[in-house]
Amino acid sequence: MATDPATPPDAEQQALLDALRAVLAPLARLALARGLPYSELEDLLKRSMVQAAADLHPQVPAHRSVSRIATATGINRREVTRLTQSATDDGSHMPARSVASEVFTRWLSDRAYRDRHGQPRVLARLGPAPSFETLAQAVTRDVHPRSLLDELLRLNLAELDAERDTVTLQREGYVPSGDRARMLGFMADNVGDHLAASVANVVGDGRRHFEQAVFADGLSDESMAAVRKLVSAQWKGLLDALVPPLQQLVDADAKRPPSEHRRVRIGLYGYDEPTAEARAAAQAEAAPPPAAPKRRPRRS
User: Fold this and answer.
1) Cα(151)–Cα(157) distance, rounded to whole angstroms?
2) Beta carbons of 148 and 99 less than 8 angstroms apart
3) What is the C-alpha to C-alpha distance for residues 181 and 173, in angstroms, rounded to an integer?
4) Which of 10, 53, 194, 266 could form a disulfide with 72 if both were Cys (CB 3.0 to 4.6 A apart)?
């Protein structure tokens, strides 16, 4: 990692430790909430360190890579050998394409599938555009529209009126209800890419990824309700502004060879919690009153 000459090494090291602590704390909460033991987390971290070290010098011959990785990571050679020989997934795979999410996003953002108020239309399941059939076929012809509809229904993202044979969108965000595995997949993709962008910006590989945020404190619960509405409106505006031109660029670049293809993820997130002062005040209010000092009996 490049060092800033204006920052003392000790201060930079402490800043790095503070940053890692902030990143690891929510991961530790997730592991505890799902009963994942420390031993498995430790093994994951070792594998990630070994893979990252290997990726730094991909041209190093195999017979020298173990020593190079052991030196870079501080993990002994025997352990490096075990991890490299048993590795089945290097963590750098491309995220699996979710065709259902693409159908969902196009339904939200394509003007042909929205009414005059800008809301997603109630679509006939079959027939000419705008119908769910034409919506699904605009995204892919490799998956049958009925299969895509069944997936949206399974995730409680759409509702089918069997009597009228129409389909209604049920949510404004692609957050599958009752599917923890899919939600964990979204977390891996979204947080993973966000963190990768942050790390790339800090390490400095010659490319800069856009990463900005606004923050405020001193807000009440009522004000936070208003903030959430603002964020939802901004997300809808972001979808409307980005999805159509992104699709045009994808279509235009389809003629290029696969070796020139890149992927991009653009997101918006919000997070709120009590301030440190609020937590301290709540703890003080919940603390039991101090016990009165016991008096010793006195003899007259």
Assistant:
1) 9
2) yes
3) 17
4) 53
3-state secondary structure of 114: strand
Q: Residue 177's pLDDT is what?
A: 58
Backbone angles phi, psi at 207, to 5 degrees: -120, 145
- For 43-76, what is each residue's pLDDT tens digit? 999 999 999 999 888 888 877 888 899 999 999 9
- Contact in structure between 203 and 1 (CB atoms under 8 Å): yes
Place of tokens 């937590």: 279
Per-residue pLDDT tens digits for 239-296? 888 988 998 898 899 899 989 999 999 999 899 999 888 888 888 888 777 766 666 6
Residue 190, CB-side half-sphere exposure with 13 Å CA sphere: 13
Residue of 52, 41, 61, 38 lying closest to 196 (CA atoms): 52
Q: Count the neighbouring beta carbons within 10 Å of the beta carbon of residue 66.
A: 20
Domain residues of the chain, as ranges? 99-169
pTM value > 0.70: no
